[in-house]
Amino acid sequence: MKPVLFIGNKNYSSWSLRAWFLLSQAEIDFEEVRIPLDTPEFSDRIGSVSPAGKVPVLMLGDCPVWDSLAIAETVVERWPEKTLWPSDARMRARARSVSAEMHSGFAALREAMPMNCRAMGRKVTLTDAVTADINRILGIWSDCHSRYGSDKGWLFERFSVADAMYAPVVFRFRTYGIAVPESASAYPEQVMKSKAIQSWLAASESETELVEADEKGH
To answer: Helix count (H) and strand count (E) of the chain?
Structure first.
């Protein structure tokens, strides 16, 4: 049976993007079910498949997996041939660390710069906390590029869970005009070249719903 991924709006739901990008870039066949955020149907429909009441949710038969990081680990386990963590133990530890850091951190950036894929040229006040988050992310990208960089531009030599976790930030930086130094530019350039990401972007631009933020995800 084909896995089913429940997601929110492609324009707004950064958490949904992580799981969707992981499956799509890894070329894992799945069914997509989109439930618009902030609609009367959202709570009922997502609540019927996940006790957390948030997107994304991956249904494997009658087994729901919720939370983007839990989904990622489950996908790695279920499709080991996709090699979605680095095979080298030290590199894998670094990839897990930066992925968990993104999953649990950067609250100031999330609040100040909600994901909006189809918007361009938005401006926000860069407080000290937001600037610190931006600099830390750029530092991670630069460090990964210098340590593990390849011509493909992914964070850890080839596509991994870490790339899925940081992909929404690429859209955030694009929307809010955040300058990316050359030392960190390989990663966002690679993300935006992805056919999966271009497909997500095209779909987001065709959506008509207006939502203030993506608070219903994890």
So the answer is: 9, 4
